[in-house]
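Weekly modeling sync, notes
Attendees: S.R. (lead), two postdocs, one rotation student

Agenda item 3: backlog of single-chain predictions. S.R. asked that every request posted to the team notebook include the full sequence so nobody has to chase files. The rotation student volunteered to paste the first one in as an example of the format we agreed on. Action items at the bottom.

Example entry:
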Amino acid sequence: MTPSPVRRRLPPAERREEILKAATELIAASGFKGVTLEAFAAACGMTKAGLLHHFRSREELLIAVLERRDTLDLASVADTLEPAPDAAVARAVMSGFVRRNLAQRSLVQLYTVLSAEALDPAHPAHAYFRTRLSEGRAMLECYLLAWHPRPGQAAVDLLAFLDGLQLNWLRDAGIDFLAQWEAFADRFFAT
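Predicted structure, as returned to the notebook:
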Protein backbone atom coordinates (compact mmCIF):
# COMPACT_ATOMS: atom_id res chain seq x y z
CA MET A 1 0.00 0.00 0.00
CA THR A 2 1.31 3.45 -0.94
CA PRO A 3 1.65 5.80 2.02
CA SER A 4 -0.41 8.97 1.99
CA PRO A 5 1.52 12.14 1.19
CA VAL A 6 2.55 14.20 4.19
CA ARG A 7 0.18 17.14 4.59
CA ARG A 8 1.79 20.51 5.14
CA ARG A 9 0.20 23.64 6.46
CA LEU A 10 1.03 26.70 4.41
CA PRO A 11 -0.24 30.25 4.52
CA PRO A 12 -3.08 30.66 1.98
CA ALA A 13 -1.03 32.80 -0.44
CA GLU A 14 1.83 30.25 -0.48
CA ARG A 15 -0.57 27.34 -0.93
CA ARG A 16 -2.33 29.14 -3.76
CA GLU A 17 1.00 29.80 -5.50
CA GLU A 18 2.00 26.17 -5.06
CA ILE A 19 -1.29 25.04 -6.60
CA LEU A 20 -0.89 27.42 -9.54
CA LYS A 21 2.66 26.21 -10.25
CA ALA A 22 1.62 22.55 -10.15
CA ALA A 23 -1.48 23.22 -12.24
CA THR A 24 0.63 25.03 -14.82
CA GLU A 25 2.89 22.00 -15.22
CA LEU A 26 0.00 19.54 -15.42
CA ILE A 27 -1.91 21.57 -17.99
CA ALA A 28 1.22 22.10 -20.08
CA ALA A 29 1.85 18.36 -20.11
CA SER A 30 -1.71 17.08 -20.58
CA GLY A 31 -3.95 19.95 -21.65
CA PHE A 32 -6.79 21.18 -19.52
CA LYS A 33 -9.39 18.64 -20.61
CA GLY A 34 -7.22 15.74 -19.52
CA VAL A 35 -6.66 16.80 -15.91
CA THR A 36 -9.15 16.21 -13.12
CA LEU A 37 -9.47 18.17 -9.89
CA GLU A 38 -8.15 15.09 -8.11
CA ALA A 39 -5.01 15.17 -10.26
CA PHE A 40 -4.47 18.86 -9.56
CA ALA A 41 -4.89 18.19 -5.83
CA ALA A 42 -2.58 15.16 -5.86
CA ALA A 43 0.17 17.18 -7.56
CA CYS A 44 0.17 19.46 -4.51
CA GLY A 45 -0.22 16.73 -1.90
CA MET A 46 -3.76 17.92 -1.18
CA THR A 47 -7.22 16.49 -1.21
CA LYS A 48 -9.83 17.58 -3.73
CA ALA A 49 -11.71 19.30 -0.89
CA GLY A 50 -8.55 21.18 0.09
CA LEU A 51 -8.04 22.35 -3.47
CA LEU A 52 -11.66 23.48 -3.72
CA HIS A 53 -11.05 25.63 -0.65
CA HIS A 54 -8.69 27.75 -2.79
CA PHE A 55 -10.39 27.42 -6.20
CA ARG A 56 -14.11 26.76 -6.52
CA SER A 57 -13.78 24.82 -9.80
CA ARG A 58 -11.39 23.53 -12.46
CA GLU A 59 -12.41 26.49 -14.60
CA GLU A 60 -11.55 29.01 -11.89
CA LEU A 61 -8.18 27.29 -11.44
CA LEU A 62 -7.53 27.44 -15.19
CA ILE A 63 -8.26 31.16 -15.39
CA ALA A 64 -6.06 31.77 -12.33
CA VAL A 65 -3.18 29.89 -14.02
CA LEU A 66 -3.54 32.04 -17.14
CA GLU A 67 -3.83 35.28 -15.20
CA ARG A 68 -0.76 34.38 -13.13
CA ARG A 69 1.27 33.95 -16.30
CA ASP A 70 0.10 37.30 -17.63
CA THR A 71 0.96 38.99 -14.33
CA LEU A 72 4.46 37.48 -14.35
CA ASP A 73 5.00 38.53 -17.97
CA LEU A 74 3.81 42.06 -17.32
CA ALA A 75 6.02 42.38 -14.25
CA SER A 76 9.03 41.36 -16.33
CA VAL A 77 8.59 44.39 -18.61
CA ALA A 78 6.88 46.86 -16.30
CA ASP A 79 9.68 49.38 -16.71
CA THR A 80 9.36 49.30 -20.52
CA LEU A 81 5.67 50.14 -20.80
CA GLU A 82 6.22 53.41 -22.57
CA PRO A 83 5.66 53.59 -26.33
CA ALA A 84 8.73 52.43 -28.25
CA PRO A 85 10.06 55.47 -30.11
CA ASP A 86 11.55 53.40 -32.91
CA ALA A 87 12.11 49.93 -34.34
CA ALA A 88 15.33 49.32 -32.42
CA VAL A 89 13.70 49.83 -29.03
CA ALA A 90 10.69 47.72 -30.02
CA ARG A 91 12.96 44.93 -31.21
CA ALA A 92 14.90 44.96 -27.95
CA VAL A 93 11.69 44.65 -25.92
CA MET A 94 10.35 41.82 -28.11
CA SER A 95 13.70 40.03 -28.01
CA GLY A 96 13.44 40.15 -24.22
CA PHE A 97 10.02 38.47 -24.40
CA VAL A 98 11.40 35.84 -26.77
CA ARG A 99 14.32 35.04 -24.47
CA ARG A 100 11.98 34.87 -21.49
CA ASN A 101 9.72 32.41 -23.30
CA LEU A 102 12.68 30.27 -24.36
CA ALA A 103 13.47 29.77 -20.69
CA GLN A 104 9.86 28.71 -19.98
CA ARG A 105 9.13 25.95 -22.45
CA SER A 106 6.40 24.43 -20.26
CA LEU A 107 4.54 27.76 -20.14
CA VAL A 108 4.81 28.19 -23.90
CA GLN A 109 3.42 24.68 -24.24
CA LEU A 110 0.65 25.49 -21.77
CA TYR A 111 -0.48 28.49 -23.79
CA THR A 112 -0.19 26.67 -27.10
CA VAL A 113 -2.25 23.70 -25.92
CA LEU A 114 -4.86 25.83 -24.17
CA SER A 115 -5.22 28.32 -27.01
CA ALA A 116 -5.98 25.45 -29.38
CA GLU A 117 -8.44 23.83 -26.94
CA ALA A 118 -10.09 27.21 -26.32
CA LEU A 119 -11.05 27.64 -29.97
CA ASP A 120 -14.19 25.81 -28.88
CA PRO A 121 -16.65 28.47 -27.66
CA ALA A 122 -17.73 26.08 -24.88
CA HIS A 123 -14.20 25.92 -23.44
CA PRO A 124 -13.86 27.79 -20.11
CA ALA A 125 -10.92 29.83 -21.42
CA HIS A 126 -12.49 30.77 -24.77
CA ALA A 127 -13.35 34.32 -23.69
CA TYR A 128 -9.98 34.70 -21.96
CA PHE A 129 -8.06 33.95 -25.16
CA ARG A 130 -10.28 36.19 -27.30
CA THR A 131 -9.74 39.06 -24.87
CA ARG A 132 -6.02 38.33 -24.59
CA LEU A 133 -5.60 38.44 -28.36
CA SER A 134 -7.49 41.71 -28.63
CA GLU A 135 -5.60 43.31 -25.75
CA GLY A 136 -2.26 41.95 -26.97
CA ARG A 137 -2.77 43.37 -30.43
CA ALA A 138 -3.81 46.73 -28.97
CA MET A 139 -0.77 46.80 -26.70
CA LEU A 140 1.55 46.02 -29.60
CA GLU A 141 -0.09 48.67 -31.78
CA CYS A 142 0.03 51.39 -29.11
CA TYR A 143 3.31 50.63 -27.36
CA LEU A 144 5.72 48.59 -29.43
CA LEU A 145 4.61 49.29 -32.97
CA ALA A 146 3.40 52.90 -32.84
CA TRP A 147 6.44 53.85 -34.98
CA HIS A 148 5.37 51.41 -37.74
CA PRO A 149 3.48 52.86 -40.74
CA ARG A 150 0.81 50.11 -40.34
CA PRO A 151 0.86 49.16 -36.64
CA GLY A 152 -2.35 47.09 -36.77
CA GLN A 153 -1.14 44.90 -39.62
CA ALA A 154 2.33 44.68 -38.08
CA ALA A 155 0.83 43.46 -34.78
CA VAL A 156 -1.00 40.63 -36.57
CA ASP A 157 2.16 39.72 -38.51
CA LEU A 158 4.29 39.65 -35.37
CA LEU A 159 1.83 37.56 -33.37
CA ALA A 160 1.32 35.14 -36.26
CA PHE A 161 5.04 34.61 -36.68
CA LEU A 162 5.64 34.04 -32.97
CA ASP A 163 2.64 31.72 -32.56
CA GLY A 164 3.72 29.67 -35.57
CA LEU A 165 7.35 29.50 -34.52
CA GLN A 166 6.40 28.49 -30.98
CA LEU A 167 4.18 25.69 -32.27
CA ASN A 168 6.91 24.33 -34.55
CA TRP A 169 9.57 24.67 -31.83
CA LEU A 170 7.39 22.66 -29.45
CA ARG A 171 7.10 19.93 -32.09
CA ASP A 172 10.79 19.96 -32.97
CA ALA A 173 13.25 20.94 -30.25
CA GLY A 174 15.97 21.01 -32.91
CA ILE A 175 14.62 24.31 -34.23
CA ASP A 176 16.87 27.15 -33.17
CA PHE A 177 14.13 29.47 -31.96
CA LEU A 178 16.43 32.37 -31.25
CA ALA A 179 18.12 32.19 -34.68
CA GLN A 180 14.70 32.07 -36.38
CA TRP A 181 13.51 35.01 -34.32
CA GLU A 182 16.62 37.08 -35.13
CA ALA A 183 16.27 36.39 -38.87
CA PHE A 184 12.61 37.43 -38.77
CA ALA A 185 13.37 40.48 -36.60
CA ASP A 186 16.06 41.61 -39.06
CA ARG A 187 13.35 41.89 -41.73
CA PHE A 188 10.41 42.92 -39.58
CA PHE A 189 12.07 45.76 -37.68
CA ALA A 190 13.80 47.11 -40.80
CA THR A 191 10.51 48.65 -41.95
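Discussion: group reviewed the output briefly. The chain has nine helices and no strands.
Action items: rotation student to repeat for the remaining queue; S.R. to check formatting next week.
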